Predict the structure.
Amino acid sequence: METAYSENEIFENRDFIKHGLRENEFENCEFRGCNFANADLSDVKFFDCTFSTCNLSLAKLTKTTFRISKFRDCKMLGLHFEHCNLLGFECSFYGCNLTHSSFFGLKIKKTLFSNTLLQECDFAGADLSDAVFEKCDLSGTSFENTILERADLRTAYNYNIDPNLNKLKKARVGLSGLPGLLHKYNLEIDQDS
């Protein structure tokens, strides 16, 4: 199959479920309102691309390349980012829904998650050093053997992170986040005093 290359293009309201993208390469492209749900994105390369209001839920990401990719207001349920091509992997997420997605074992330092639903996600074994979780809902999300050194969790909420099972050196948390770090001790924390 011949590789198709697209550069500096805008794709609007396209349904990529019917027309596969295998072995395609996109550079500096924008995808607006596109449907990738359940699509096979194996071996597709996205360099410096932006996805806005797209649905990528349950897309197959085997060896998919995301380099400097931005996702805005996208539905991204059940994605397995650990199956991506990890060389140069770099993404940022703004207002997205990543519920049930997995970042298992990934080195995703400095990743920005802003106003994003990260419910029931898997960050076990991931390196999230210097990551920012700005106004993110982390309820039910798994953190085990996760490196969160210098991570910014000040405005994140609904998380349970065991400091004994994760590296949290110099992580930034707000007072409202302390119960999420002390959950296993079953303490009654009075935030009004």
